Amino acid sequence: MRIQVEHLSWGVPGKTIVNGVDLVVGDGETVGLIGPNGSGKSSLLRCIAGLRTPTGGVVRYDGADIASWSAREKARQLAFVEQTADTDSDLRVSEVVMLGRTAHRSRWRGPDAADHEVVAAALDRLGLTALADRPWKQLSGGERQRTHLARALAQRTSALLLDEPTNHLDVRHQLELMELASSTPQTVVVALHDLALAARYCDRLVLMHGGTVVADGPAADVLTAPLLRAVFDVEAEIGRDSLGHLAVGYREPVR
Description:
Helix content is 31%, strand content 29%.
């Protein structure tokens, strides 16, 4: 699924947070949104997900304006995972993941064998099978995040939108999650703070600052010392680690 963002703006009274952004994400591409806190990447992602109504511009999925979709159609076409996964629900892990199947069945039909098969596959993919019957309230922060990721996979959508999905995850699960995101045939847009993860797993990086896009391209073209100095106010050195992955080292803040 191709995502096209055209001249998109969004803000609150007295403050523009996303300002005239143009962005195209190709079918099956994994694009990372990076930038400092307050740069507008999470707000942009929520507009792309249809969770916020732009004050200007449009978001299109394969040419269709997302504003024309019903909530049910959005849930069939795209899955969104927030930074934090919190709820007062008494549901079990498997029941939370089953919520991802809601848009794929009629209002009066309960889960069938196919739904249970999809949920089992999503639980297995996120290493949650042993926790399937665990109450939500007994989960750690990382387990809750993985559960919501499993729910998003169970939606079986064409697009996957992730807002800081590695929050609360240990290093192993961060790597596993980003491997999953980069290998899925879905179109993926992911907002990340970790520049090393973004460089390693995203096909393309979009660097935001002050609500606008200041760079868009391969990691080696976006993660440069001059750009990091201008956007993050740090002196950085760019190189390669022992595995050949792009590495960013920080010397000191700009003074």
